[in-house]
Each structure stands twice: as structure tokens, then as C-alpha cells.
């Protein structure tokens, strides 16, 4: 039985993430910003919705950044970051006029830019909203049982580009080439919403519950 | 290959029951929105839109409860619309498990609501619903106007200009319904669909009038829609979601199969 803490810094509803984790077999899911609960959890999910400036302000005010760093580097627990939770891990985001983020993964969060076009010259809408293919750029336990180029549900106007290209685990092409997934040691971060991505997303969450990173 | 065009079944719900009827093979309770949503989820629908037409205030609590139940069991995005008047209403629906909330009349009464909601919750969850009807041409060019009250009440607002304004105020998506076509099964009003998809950079969902699978194809290929919404063709079992997707894919449209 797995105990999962979903870090809640007050930005939006996290019940979907919790329901999906319960659906795939997590024994106990705590949506929380309590240090004790996060410390006691076997695994940690770091979600996020909304604008980055407000997210970062709340993450710092509630000291979720310290709890996250502790889970990652001291307790060395498996951590899954989702959407704005992923973006918050990077060094800096262009959103809201430029916001410093956690710098856990060196790199930038950039706007898709307008006008945006695909390789055929078709105009692309922003936000990038809907089911996009994700190319698995390297093998990883979280991709187990998920066919390469499966579609996941995205909704975002800013995209991630990590400095260390070796960290990319999944790529997304939408006018630009972006990081759909990054992986380093016990951390896996995704731009899409696995909790909204039907069978592929549920499989990724199931894999997360079974993941034992050696680090 | 990249982003798929979305197919979105729509449920009209009154006091916790799906109206307009649903006719799936083997469904136990044709009026239960939770069971129907689950069925569409299994069929591979890309999202579900839940349109609340409950008139009474007490009935709204039922709606919240229904949204909670759907969100616990359906792992695709859920949009809730109908009767949303305030930031507080939006918050209630998002907390119940909606991923997006659709605002219609309230945006006309108070356009700044869109800005406030977008700043507070993020553009990604704010959908502005536009009910448009064709009115007399101006200088030979077609013109569409926003109507309220189920298409009965004109507002004098130009639909294309309105879509642009809503996008500027922070809408993340437009749900465009042609009131000339809604319920007719004659297909989308492609003129207004094209005009609005060209006018804004945010995604546009076409709605109103779908009677067959060619209509879905036209909505994307001619109307330029990013997503197509339909109710009765799916509810009455005329077509399944996989049939619709296979048909669209054969015509070169990128869909999630």
C-alpha cells in the first residue's frame, strides 16, 4: 500500500489528481501542505495550475519549496511534478513579466509566441489545449506499457526547455520543440495532465506508484 | 503530427438528470449523467461538456454533487456551463472537479467577470460561450450577432468582435453555438465558425446543428474549429465516438484514436 502526498499550495482543485491516484491503486492520498504528512508519504506529487507568479508566491509562503527539496534530496522519494508544478522546477519563467522559479532543474519556461505555425504553415492556437502526441526520447520506468507517441492532455501557454538536454524523457512538438517530460534520478516531471489523460495518463500514474528509482 | 482535433459530447442536465434523452445500448439509467459521462469516457471522448439547465436555486446543489461524482470517475477534462454568474460560482464548480467553466450571459452583463476569473483561476479554465445568430448583412458581408435567452433576445453585439474582446479579456477558449442551427441537424454554421476561428488565437469549439459525421469534418476542415461538440448524434446511438473519430481520420483530420 502506497501513501502519496499531493502538495497543496492553494492554487486550484487537486481532487482530480487525488481521485486518479486512488483509482490506480494508491492506498492513501493526502492533499496537503503539512510537513509531517509530506515527510510520512512514500511518494510525492507536485501539481500546479494557474499563473506562475501566484504559484511561486504561495509555494514560498507555505515553504512547499523546502518540503519538496527535502523529499527530493534528503528523503530521496519518488516525486512526480505536473504542469505548472513542472514549470516551477525550472530556473525562470517568462510568464507574468518574468518570474524566478525553484531552479531545481536549470532551464527556462518560455511563451509559445504568436503567431505560431506548424511545419505545414498551419496556424496554431495558444493556449496549447488538447491531446498531443508525446515522443518518448528515452526509456524510463514511467513509460512502461505506454506506446511511444501516445497522446496526453495538455493545457498551457508556456513551455519548458531544460538546459541539460539529457534530462528530456519526452518531447512535444507544437510549433516549437518542447520538453513534455523530464527525468532525473527520483524526479519525473510532465507538462501534460496524466490525471486527465485517460488510459495513457492512468498508466503513467500506475507506473509512478510502482517506481523504485535507484538513487 | 501534433495536436488532435477534439470530439466533445455534451450533456444537458436538469436537476441532476440528463434531458433530451440518451439511448445507448445496454445503459442502465439513461438519465444518469454520471453513467453517461463514464460511457463517453470509455468510448474515447476527448472531453465532456456538462450544460446545466437547472432553473431553481436548490437544484444547483444537485449539479455540484453530480459534477463531483463525474470528476471522481472520469479521467478526461470536464467543462461545466450554465448559470455561472460570478467568480464564486466558478470557484464552486472548479472545487467540485470541473476543469473548465463556461460563461455565457454573465459575460455579456459584466465582461470584466472574464478578466477577473481568468486572473484568479488562469485562462486555461475560462471558456466563453457565444450564442450567435445570423442577422442582416452589412454592405453585402454576412454578420452574426450575440443572442441570449436561448436565441430569443438580441443584444446588438457583433459575434466576431465579441470573440476578439473575450480573448483579450482572458478567455482560454470559445464555445461557439449557432442558434440558427442548434437542434436542426443541418450542420454547423460554417461562416461564423470560420470568421471566429480566424479572428482569435485561442481554440474554438464549434457547436450547434450536428446531424451526421460529415458535419463534424466540415466544422474542422471548412470552419477551422479546434474541437467539435455534439449531443444528439451520440446520445441516440446514431454514431459512437470511435465511429466519428475513424470517419474524421479517414478524411485526414488528426484525432486521438
Automatic annotation (TrEMBL), chain A:
<keyword id="KW-0368">Histidine biosynthesis</keyword>
<dbReference type="GO" id="GO:0016829">
    <property type="term" value="F:lyase activity"/>
</dbReference>
<comment type="subunit">
    <text>Heterodimer of HisH and HisF.</text>
</comment>
<feature type="active site">
    <location>
        <position position="193"/>
    </location>
</feature>
<comment type="pathway">
    <text>Amino-acid biosynthesis; L-histidine biosynthesis; L-histidine from 5-phospho-alpha-D-ribose 1-diphosphate: step 5/9.</text>
</comment>
<keyword id="KW-0963">Cytoplasm</keyword>
<comment type="function">
    <text>IGPS catalyzes the conversion of PRFAR and glutamine to IGP, AICAR and glutamate. The HisH subunit catalyzes the hydrolysis of glutamine to glutamate and ammonia as part of the synthesis of IGP and AICAR. The resulting ammonia molecule is channeled to the active site of HisF.</text>
</comment>
<dbReference type="InterPro" id="IPR010139">
    <property type="entry name" value="Imidazole-glycPsynth_HisH"/>
</dbReference>
<keyword id="KW-0378">Hydrolase</keyword>
<keyword id="KW-0028">Amino-acid biosynthesis</keyword>
<protein>
    <recommendedName>
        <fullName>Imidazole glycerol phosphate synthase subunit HisH</fullName>
        <ecNumber>4.3.2.10</ecNumber>
        <ecNumber>3.5.1.2</ecNumber>
    </recommendedName>
</protein>
<dbReference type="GO" id="GO:0000107">
    <property type="term" value="F:imidazoleglycerol-phosphate synthase activity"/>
</dbReference>
<dbReference type="Pfam" id="PF00117">
    <property type="entry name" value="GATase"/>
</dbReference>
<feature type="active site" description="Nucleophile">
    <location>
        <position position="83"/>
    </location>
</feature>
<dbReference type="GO" id="GO:0005737">
    <property type="term" value="C:cytoplasm"/>
</dbReference>
<dbReference type="GO" id="GO:0000105">
    <property type="term" value="P:L-histidine biosynthetic process"/>
</dbReference>
<keyword id="KW-0456">Lyase</keyword>
<feature type="domain" description="Glutamine amidotransferase">
    <location>
        <begin position="6"/>
        <end position="209"/>
    </location>
</feature>
<feature type="active site">
    <location>
        <position position="195"/>
    </location>
</feature>
<keyword id="KW-0315">Glutamine amidotransferase</keyword>
<dbReference type="InterPro" id="IPR029062">
    <property type="entry name" value="Class_I_gatase-like"/>
</dbReference>
<dbReference type="GO" id="GO:0004359">
    <property type="term" value="F:glutaminase activity"/>
</dbReference>
UniProtKB/TrEMBL annotation, chain B:
<dbReference type="InterPro" id="IPR011060">
    <property type="entry name" value="RibuloseP-bd_barrel"/>
</dbReference>
<comment type="pathway">
    <text>Amino-acid biosynthesis; L-histidine biosynthesis; L-histidine from 5-phospho-alpha-D-ribose 1-diphosphate: step 5/9.</text>
</comment>
<dbReference type="InterPro" id="IPR050064">
    <property type="entry name" value="IGPS_HisA/HisF"/>
</dbReference>
<comment type="function">
    <text>IGPS catalyzes the conversion of PRFAR and glutamine to IGP, AICAR and glutamate. The HisF subunit catalyzes the cyclization activity that produces IGP and AICAR from PRFAR using the ammonia provided by the HisH subunit.</text>
</comment>
<protein>
    <recommendedName>
        <fullName>Imidazole glycerol phosphate synthase subunit HisF</fullName>
        <ecNumber>4.3.2.10</ecNumber>
    </recommendedName>
</protein>
<keyword id="KW-0456">Lyase</keyword>
<dbReference type="GO" id="GO:0016829">
    <property type="term" value="F:lyase activity"/>
</dbReference>
<comment type="similarity">
    <text>Belongs to the HisA/HisF family.</text>
</comment>
<feature type="active site">
    <location>
        <position position="12"/>
    </location>
</feature>
<feature type="active site">
    <location>
        <position position="131"/>
    </location>
</feature>
<dbReference type="GO" id="GO:0005737">
    <property type="term" value="C:cytoplasm"/>
</dbReference>
<keyword id="KW-0963">Cytoplasm</keyword>
<keyword id="KW-0028">Amino-acid biosynthesis</keyword>
<dbReference type="Pfam" id="PF00977">
    <property type="entry name" value="His_biosynth"/>
</dbReference>
<dbReference type="GO" id="GO:0000107">
    <property type="term" value="F:imidazoleglycerol-phosphate synthase activity"/>
</dbReference>
<comment type="subunit">
    <text>Heterodimer of HisH and HisF.</text>
</comment>
<dbReference type="InterPro" id="IPR004651">
    <property type="entry name" value="HisF"/>
</dbReference>
<dbReference type="GO" id="GO:0000105">
    <property type="term" value="P:L-histidine biosynthetic process"/>
</dbReference>
<dbReference type="InterPro" id="IPR013785">
    <property type="entry name" value="Aldolase_TIM"/>
</dbReference>
<dbReference type="InterPro" id="IPR006062">
    <property type="entry name" value="His_biosynth"/>
</dbReference>
<keyword id="KW-0368">Histidine biosynthesis</keyword>
